[in-house]
User: Fold this.
Amino acid sequence: MLLAQIKNLNKKFQNQTVLNNINFEIETGQILALAGESGSGKSTIAKILAGLLTADSGQFNLNKLDFSLVNTRPKTQRKKVQLVFQNSLASFNPKYTIYQSLTSPLEEYEIVKKQNDLKNKIAELFELVGLNDLNLMNRFPHQLSGGQIQRAAIARAICCEPDLLIADEPTSALDVSIRAQILSLFRKLTLQKNFACLIISHDLLSLKNLADQICIMRAGEIIERGFTKDILNNPTEKYTQKLIAAIPSLNPEDQTFYKFANY
Assistant:
């Protein structure tokens, strides 16, 4: 079922075109990837859809509601689109424990209305994202490992019960084995919570078994879109062909990178 439509999205910074007539759709339960080299405009799209930047023009329809791309959004709309940042550690307030960081949006958006239910809700979120040690909720962000803080960031995003989850380079700072686990987690949550997921990445390897469809971006434009398997096996654009040709062949011991690991 169609969930989100982005139409004619345009953005300039100091008269330089950053996004030019961006159009794409996402279905409920689908993982769509935006791929391309650094500077192609992927993260700008993520920030605009999440309401962190405004666009010069464009339309954004989410679950049959029109979301403004050129004005600040009301609170009722902000909770519907959540963003997992590339640097998860930096996205947390270092003075707050993980518990405090998770309770803040739960209270802000009235997801949990009774104070006594907060701890149970966070325990539920921990289980969903594979954080098995409940004592972690009393630690500060810097006291968690890279994989743990990324899972905590995902928990914070999904606690708002979004319709669209955006992940901007969510595994770029993680070890190979942890990357596979986090990618698996995105697939699990997309199916289990029935939202749509937009993955931003320059790494086509990480998208091979994750994304249902992929948009290839170059210089602020989407130049090719299709099912991930079709794009990676039979790209039509020369730029896409060069991106795929640049993928290093994997050593046998690294094959787990292609596969989903345990959540």
Summary: The first strand starts at residue 2 and ends at 13. Strands lie at 2-13, 16-27, 31-35, 57-62, 65-67, 81-84, 164-168, 196-201, 213-218, 221-227.
